[in-house]
Amino acid sequence: MREINLNHKKRNAITAVMALCCLSHPSPLSAQKNQQNAIAGGLSSTETRADSLLVSQLRRKGVRFSHNNSVTLLTTGQEKFDDLFKAIDQARSSIHLEYFNFRNDSINEELIRRLAAKAKEGIEVRAVFDGFGNASNNRPMRKRRLKAIRKQGIEIHEFKPMAFPWLHDIFNRDHRKIIVIDGKVAYTGGMNVADYYIKGTKAVGSWHDMHCRIEGDEVNTLQKIFLRMWRIVSGQDVHGAKYYRGVSDADYMAGLKPDTCRSAGKKMVGIINREPHVTKDIIRCFYLNAIKDAKDSIKLINPYFSLSHSLKKALRDAVSRGVKVEILLSMKSDIPLTPDCGFYNAHQLMKAGCTIWIYKPGFHHTKIITIDGQLCTVGSANLNARSLRWDREENAVIVDACTTHELNQLFEDQKKDSFKLTEAKWKQWRTPWQRFRGWFAHLLSPFL
Prior knowledge:
By secondary structure, this protein is of the alpha/beta class. The chain has 16 helices and 17 strands. The chain has helices at residues 2-24, 28-41, 50-60, 77-89, 106-120, 131-136, 143-151, 196-199, 218-234, 282-293, 309-320, 338-351, 385-390, 401-415, 423-429, 432-443, and strands at 65-74, 94-99, 124-130, 155-159, 178-181, 185-189, 206-208, 211-215, 267-274, 297-301, 324-330, 355-359, 362-364, 368-371, 375-379, 393-399, 418-420.
């Protein structure tokens, strides 16, 4: 009996030592569980990671995250449209498209041809475009073109058509880019429907932008956003289980670019959707908190870098606490004045310690940010007043180290075609007049 008691004491001692070792050196599995617990409940520890903090903050804002997603990055116009067209050709039930604009060009023609073929098969095809987006591009779809599209069985509606006196129609536009196929596969990102994403333009040269394809429960979130907009533009209340991802996936779709991450099918994704009067500050809060929560690195690409005072302060504060902040902007742009404001802001941030890269070959319309190698976003929102204060926007927030690494690698690749901004380079590159124009433009940033 004494021997049994001694053995019992020895076992207790060994168990205690093992427990202490586990606390000091947690296994990868327990570390992953701790991270999930931090994200689920929000930890008060100063060591809480930026992704955990940000997810908790977004959840308090009503953003829902799911853990069963795949995310495939489509980093060129060719990749995006090739992948999208393959998915459209294999659709079995419904195809929903929401874009800022469908430019009336060769890609539009090819898209409509494929959509018309699916409509002829009995597939439901619905499309929404923004009136201001259509009117402001250099090849808008006219009434005759829209009539021809509808005759082919495609339901297409315009959100807020431009009407005299126009001024009130400039605000609260639909700038989102969402495609949902069969309620099982979704695309989102920064590209509209235009052939210059593949061919470029004479004015700026090559156009760079990206989309991502999502499979998993966040497809349902994107479908809900589309169907709410569809109700607004058409008056139709489209609903039912057939429009949402249920027990089955889109395994019947072949030839799409795969998600090669080991985390494919297990990625944590949430959709931040800005709607006026409903979630008006959600994207602004995301960017601000992402920058404030960063502990190691920030990489940012955005085409319209007019920034608010709070975002500029957050970036300066990040540098002051030791975060490596890298920002990539395009030398060329598709609009006037706004780039001058962006260059002025870049110069100010450079003096505060940010590393600024100026991309030379063409126009970067990409809108991404990565935080600490753990979290990233792909979507439609620019860092200007239009996106953060007025327009309908939508971004996918991806909490996944592999996808974030892929975007970081994209950033590193683009640096090869960029120059690093220095004070000497600033004075060499920007004339006194251009520098003055940038200073003047930054005074107008709340309206750009």
